[in-house]
Amino acid sequence: MFKSGYRRDVLHRKPTNSAEDTGLNHNGGKNSAVPIRTTTADLCYINVSGKQYITTHSCLEQYPLTLLGSPDKEIYWMPELKSYYFNRNRDCFESILTFYQTGREFRPLSVDDEIYEAERKFFRIELKARADTALSLGDASSMSPLCCEGDWKNTKKRIHRFLMDPRCSRWATAWHIMDILFICISITLLVMETDDNVKNMFQEGHPFYNYIYGLNILVIAFFTADLLVRFVTWPGLLNFWKNLFNILDILSILPFYVSLIAEAFEDPTVTGEVVELEQGHKSYVVLRVCRIFRIVRVFKFIRHSQDLIMIIKVVGHAKKELCLLILLLFIFSVSFGSLMYYIEQDDNEQFSTIMQGCWWAIVTITTIGYGDIAPTTWLGKIVGSLVLTMGIVFLALPMTIIVGKFSTVYEKEKGKD
Questions:
Q1: Which residues contact 242 (CB under 8 A, 6 or more apart)?
Q2: Where are the beta strands (DSSP E) in 83-188?
Q3: Structure pTM?
Q4: What is the pLDDT of residues 77-93, one digit of tens each?
Q5: What share of the chain is helix, strand, coil (3-state, %, to 5)?
Q6: N or C, which end of the chain is more exposed by having fewer CB within 10 Å?
Q7: Are the CB atoms for 411 and 314 separated by under 8 Å?
């Protein structure tokens, strides 16, 4: 009856089809008055890609339409391991085993949708099978949340993952590509707006003004819709405001709505997002500041690059070393800047203040050397040579520590990812 390698002792195992053994009443519902007793013979050992799981046959056989709940699983019995062996995804199997134990299914967020669906299909955890099994047991509440409509909490998680993880599905990848496209369009409009050759296209009355203004509205509408959906589906209102990228997204669209409000109340001439006001106007300063916030749209690219996010995390881990570097730069710049001021103040007008001396020291220590300020006395040139030499040592010693720390933390964070 069975192929070679099947468990033959399963034929002699006492069947669990009575109400006393299974804990089910004669109507197919769960019998809470008769507890299920776990025996050694009822234990079921499952090995998934080298990881051992222990459950019971009676637990699996509650769902006879599935692979593990049917006799078909016997083809995977390995006498050498004394367990059923499946070369499948372990993260997915833990979720599938949870379904057998609790009757509820929760897909792990770290697994791609297509991979998880393939695992469910392999173990025959189909929507119809799960629904029919739950109904046959007389317990509709044991159906998986994925089978039930109106589960807002689960829907929020799926939408949030769709917006935040482009790897979860092809549609999520397409959405993120569209987001990147709109970011590029927005930055292009921002740059072109300041070019004298095409600036007149952003002024009302130009033939292309309506097209550009409509494109700008489309970009802002997309950014606004994306932000609102993330706000609604974000896990925790307070956590939403703690996320730096959410704040940057708000600041990136703020100038457009401020300009609309200014147009409604102050009636200025509005060309796209550029509000033309006289410098004496009371709203001029506020609108000029808001226009600066459009630059933060460039940082929206960081959200789509895991490597950039990882680098930011690494910088956070190496903050002590970076603070040491900044402290040394401050000490050297103030010391040599003050010294150069007292040496050059009588013979060189370029060193008229200690602040100018500090600027020269920073540029020299970092080996940039703009050449806008330079010593003219022989003593100043000697000090300048000393500062330049100290700059090389200053960059060599702390930077080796920072680079080593950076590499260690980067590999660690990359392994976690």
A1: none
A2: 83-86
A3: 0.54
A4: 998 888 999 999 888 89
A5: 65, 5, 30
A6: N
A7: no
